[in-house]
Automatic annotation (TrEMBL):
Any Pfam family the entry gives: ATP_bind_3
Protein location: Cytoplasm
Membrane-crossing residue ranges in chain numbering: none
Name of this chain's protein: Cytoplasmic tRNA 2-thiolation protein 1
SUPFAM superfamilies: Adenine nucleotide alpha hydrolases-like
Gene: NCS6
């Protein structure tokens, strides 16, 4: 059988079949349509303004590495006039994050972008290895997710950027929709498909890969021969998200459009006004100044539990009440530095200090 020609250019030999559309196309056409789709997502959502300072959340994995490459490519091709930075969070996971950060440092040289690394140890006084040693494998992703979100905002604040972009793709968003449905988490279900999120005191963040399939991101990295770290987190196999991911992959095998269909379904969900009225209003954490729906933010609650030897205090109501019964927190309790947002763009120093 003669090799098939590209369905788009009709000239070159087809090298791959797009998981998203089923088209058989050549490599150059794949690069162009993938990049163009991301560009269309960016322009239709009006994610950036000329002159924006944008931090790319960089883990060294395939998603963030492809995101850095594509953002640099589109910034130059379409003259977005963005100032791009790499921002990495070191959770302190031996044999995983220390290795992936070496990839990020190589990406810094390859893409010629300033790099800022902020560690959990520097910010919270705890590494994920130390947290897992105390609490075990159950619920460790809760600590990491809460700490990481705040660390990204604080790192971006140190850089003086206007915007954070992350490599969350269509698969990730579809998984989150499924997780929120299975948990009955109405508050998160109402906003988990938003391409842009921003709290009162936090930096705007967005997902340029919202409609990009994970398989196509992997194919892009492979055919472009990008330098990325492919090992999964050593603590993630026990995460609840893994069950949603396995279910989604089964759905995709039967119906390839299931991923984007679930994303669109999540976008179509409307939370009734009476349900919205029951949600807690956003305020400021009394201890660290970060946004919170309670007097203490989730990160401060988790950290206090760790410091006082009651790590599950931020996980269950019963444990939180037990912590409250122990009395006020000691005066020498380790706390998170107070968060003071930088509102003036361009206030960061031209030379970015790398802290590990």
């Amino acid at each position: 059988m003669a090799p098939k020609s590209c369905a788009l250019c009709k000239k070159a030999r087809a090298m791959l079949k797009r998981p998203k559309t089923g088209q058989q196309i050549c490599r150059d056409c794949f690069f162009f349509v993938f990049e163009t789709e991301v560009h269309n997502t960016i322009t239709e959502a009006k994610l950036f303004s000329p002159g924006d300072r944008v931090a790319i959340g960089a883990s060294g994995g395939k998603d963030s590495t492809v995101l850095a490459h594509v953002m640099k490519t589109l910034n130059e091709r379409y003259n977005y006039r963005l100032e791009l930075f790499l921002l990495s969070i070191d959770e302190g996971i031996t044999g995983y994050r220390d290795d992936s950060l070496e990839t990020v440092k190589r990406n810094q040289q390859q893409y010629d972008m300033p790099l800022k690394i902020l560690s959990y140890d520097e910010l919270y006084g705890w590494t994920m290895d130390a947290i897992v040693e105390q609490i075990g494998r159950k619920n460790n992703c809760t600590f990491c997710g809460v700490f990481r979100r705040q660390a990204l905002d604080r790192g971006a604040n140190m850089l003086g950027v206007d915007h954070i972009v992350t490599g969350h793709n269509a698969d990730d968003i579809a998984e989150t929709v499924l997780m929120n449905i299975m948990r009955g988490d109405i508050a998160r279900l109402g906003r988990c498909t938003s391409i842009v999120t921003q709290g009162e005191d936090t930096i705007r963040r967005s997902k340029p890969f919202k409609y990009a399939y994970e398989k196509e991101i992997v194919m892009y990295a492979y055919f472009k021969k990008l330098d990325y770290f492919s090992t999964e987190c050593i603590y993630s196999p026990d995460a609840y998200r893994g069950h949603a991911r396995a279910f989604l992959k089964d759905l995709e095998a039967a119906r390839p459009s299931a991923i984007i269909d679930i994303v669109h379904s999540g976008e179509a969900f409307e939370v009734r006004e009476e349900v919205k009225a029951t949600q807690k209003l956003q305020q400021t954490c009394q201890r660290c100044g970060y946004m919170s729906s309670n007097t203490l933010c989730k990160a401060c609650t988790l950290l206090e539990g760790l410091e006082r030897g009651m790590a599950d205090a931020g996980i269950t109501d019963r444990a939180r009440k037990r912590l409250e019964a122990e009395g006020p927190a000691p005066e020498n309790l380790r706390t998170i530095p107070f968060f003071r947002p930088t509102t003036t763009p361009g206030s960061a120093a031209s030379t970015v200090e790398v802290a590990i």
